[in-house]
Design goal:
about 475 residues; Rossmann fold; 2 domains; 8-stranded mixed β-sheet; 15 helices
Length: about 475
């Protein structure tokens, strides 16, 4: 576990926004694949897939594959080979490179997309390996820092497949998970394709549980790279990476958690503050945070562990107070940074919640700080609020695109992911580009532009601005402010 382990157990990445995993247990919300199979297979067929021999599962798969053109289906899943292109009217305008950062699961900085946009610590590059050449206390922090292991490993290259086919599978699996989270559940062909692909994964990885663990691993590993591509797309700026290593399903709470003492909270708060101080000293202006925790889901998860509702509420309340203390302490001390934060994906029902209410409050998005922008998700196809997106008239500021967003994934590919995790770096992208037009703007001024340079909506869910970010409007306002 990381040095931030006391509270990170109840943080969750806010991408791949589908119902499923219990909240503090799993750092990323995946589709409940097991539930999906139980809903669409007979009890006998489900039992065979879960407990049958490889030969039995393969025989079942062959029967399905005869009805589904799996190769064409897989080709469709891989049909996102190029980077998305931002269309705007500002290509010929003078722009200034700034530095942006994100707190996430790491960035595949060897991906071709990031070749010319990584922040680089020139003193460490030109210095001596294994020596803190710039005197900032971090040895060889060339493109950023791993805050969990206190080293410069900002991506897990040990677990990235070395072969091209293995790397292509990452994009294929991420695209499949995005597809599984939506679509027409009454379309029999659609269902058959999905079920056949799940069973393909079951065979490929040696069982249903192994396939689920693989999906969790790939989605978690890809999260930071995907968010980074969205934040940097179309910019002339530099990406500074800060990695946190979050635990997975294997780190489920099986007994009552120990509540952190005030001394432990103070230590944690200072470590988070030091992380943001490091960003600031590195020249960072914008920080994207696509993780968080929702009170209701902490309580529900504790109840699922067998705790009484009264005790679960007590523990959840103390954990949440601790999180608020840590986040508020760290972020409030860095008003020179603009924090763009995902509002969250709601609870296990796959529906967004009003995080203005204490029971559904989500941190750090709901922090009442002038240099924090909390982001809801909309669908760029119809400009409607994503059904999974959290909202709040007070706590959520503005919306951005967050449904089936195409971006970078580890191994050199591109794939689709959904969630307020994707909406947040899309909004951070707007913040970066605003500052490229006018780097003299303060975080509060950039936030004001983001909340007024919008397309208003008539939505059934409220945010403070009641609209979604219109990039060209924001850039026009930035240009007028020069």
């Amino acid at each position: 576990m990381s040095r931030f382990s006391a509270l990170l157990l109840s943080f969750v990445l806010l991408g791949t926004a589908w119902a499923g995993s219990a909240f503090p247990v799993n750092p990323i919300q995946l589709p409940d694949v097991d539930k999906y199979l139980r809903a669409h297979l007979s009890p006998e067929d489900y039992a065979l897939i879960k407990n049958g021999s490889r030969q039995e599962v393969e025989s079942y798969f062959n029967g399905l594959a005869g009805k589904v053109d799996l190769e064409s289906f897989r080709a469709m899943l891989n049909a996102t080979p190029t980077a998305p292109v931002i269309q705007d009217n500002w290509a010929g305008v003078t722009r200034y490179a700034i530095t942006a950062s994100l707190v996430d699961t790491g960035v595949d900085y060897q991906h071709p997309f990031f070749k010319n946009c990584m922040w680089t610590n020139e003193k460490e590059v030109s210095g001596q390996a294994g020596v803190d050449d710039d005197g900032n206390g971090l040895v060889d922090d060339i493109h950023g820092w791993n805050m969990s292991k206190n080293n410069n490993e900002i991506f897990d290259y040990k677990n990235l497949p070395a072969d091209e086919e293995g790397r292509k599978m990452i994009a294929e699996e991420i695209n499949f998970l995005d597809r599984l989270g939506g679509g027409d559940l009454f379309n029999q062909e659609y269902l058959m394709q999905n079920i056949t692909m799940i069973i393909y994964f079951v065979m490929n990885y040696g069982g249903l549980q192994e396939a689920l663990q693989r999906m969790e691993f790939v989605a978690t590993m890809s999260h930071g790279t995907h968010c980074s591509g969205l934040m940097m797309n179309g910019t002339v700026s530099r990406l500074h990476a800060v990695r946190l290593e979050l635990g997975g399903a294997s780190e489920q709470m099986t007994e009552q958690p120990e509540l952190p003492t005030q001394a432990e909270l103070d230590k944690e708060a200072k470590e988070f503050e030091a992380m943001f101080a490091y960003m600031s000293k590195s020249g960072v202006r914008v920080v994207n945070i696509s993780l968080g925790s929702q009170y209701s889901m902490i309580e529900q998860s504790l109840t699922m562990q067998g705790m009484s509702s009264q005790e679960a509420r007590r523990i959840a309340t103390e954990l949440f107070k601790g999180q608020h203390y840590v986040w508020n302490y760290a972020i409030s001390r860095h008003p020179e940074l603009l924090f763009v934060i995902a509002a969250g994906n709601g609870g296990g029902d796959g529906k967004g919640d009003d995080i203005d209410t204490p029971y559904e409050c989500t941190l750090p998005a709901a922090l009442a700080l002038d240099h924090v922008v909390a982001i809801a998700a909309i669908n760029r196809k119809d400009n409607k609020v994503a059904p999974f997106s959290n909202f709040g008239k007070v706590s959520v500021d503005v919306a951005s695109f967050g449904v089936s967003e195409k971006s970078t994934v580890p191994g050199g590919g591109y794939a689709l992911m959904s969630g307020t995790s994707m909406a947040s770096p899309n909004a951070a992208n707007a913040a970066v580009r605003i500052l490229e037009i006018n780097p003299q703007l303060t975080p509060v001024q950039v936030k004001k532009i983001m909340m007024t340079g919008i397309t208003p909506w008539v939505a059934s869910v409220p945010t403070a601005s009641n609209g979604f970010i219109d990039l060209n409007k924001c850039l026009e306002m930035a240009a007028r402010s020069r």
